Amino acid sequence: MRLLALVLLLAPAAAPQRGPAPGRGQMEREFDAYRRLLLDWGGLTHYGSDNAEVKLDPAVDRVVFLGDEITEQWIPAGAGFFPGKPYLNRGITRQTTAQMLVRFRQDVVALRPRVVVIQGGSNDIASVMGPTTEPAITDNLMSMVELAQLHGIRVVLASVTPVCDCAGVKQSSRRTAFKITGLNGWLKEFAARSGSIFLDYYSALAEGRALRQGLTVDGLVPNAAGYALMAPLAEAAIAKALAGPPPRVSAYRPLPAGAEPSPRSTTQPRAPGSPASRTPASVRE
Question: N or C end of the chain, less CB within 10 A?
Answer without folding.
Answer: N
